[in-house]
Amino acid sequence: MSAQRSATKPHYTAGVIQRLAAANNVAVVVTSNDVFAHHVTRLSGDDVHFDPIENTIVALQRAGILDRVQAVRLQARYLRESRP
User: Fold this and answer.
1) Model's pTM, two decimal places?
2) Which runs of E-coded beta strand occur in the chain?
3) I want to staple 66 with a disulfide (CB 3.0 to 4.6 A). Which of 7, 14, 49, 71 is the partner?
4) Phi and psi torsions of 50, nearest 5°
C-alpha cells in the first residue's frame, strides 16, 4: 500500500468492517471465555486490548462471515491504516 493511499483514507478499512458487520447483523458479544482469556493473558504479562473494530473482526469470524486468514489480513490492514 502506498503512503499516499493510506494518507488519503486512514479509516477506510474500519468503515469496511463496520459495514460488513451491519450488513450481516453481526454484533460484538463478550463471552465468559473472552473474559477468561483476557485474564489469562493479563496475568501472563501479555495484556492485550482490542479496540471496538478489532472486536468486530472477531465477531465476524465467529459468525462465519470471515475465515481465519481473511480476519488476520483485515486486522493487519486496519492496524496499518491506524498507525500515526
Assistant:
1) 0.82
2) none
3) 71
4) -85, 140
What does the block give as the cell for 48? Answer: 492485550
Alpha helices per DSSP H over the chain:
3-8, 12-23, 32-43, 52-62, 68-82
How far apart, in Å, are the Cα atoms of 9 and each of 4, 73, 82, 83? 9, 18, 10, 12
Only one residue has cell 483514507, namely 9
Report which of 19, 30, 33 is spatially closest to residue 74, judged by C-alpha positions: 19
Residue 5: pLDDT band by 50, 70, 90 thresholds? very low
Q: Are 13 and 81 in contact (CB under 8 A)?
A: yes
Distance of alpha carbon 56 from alpha carbon 81, whole angstroms: 16
Give the end-to-end CA distance of the chain in Å, rounded to a whole number.
15
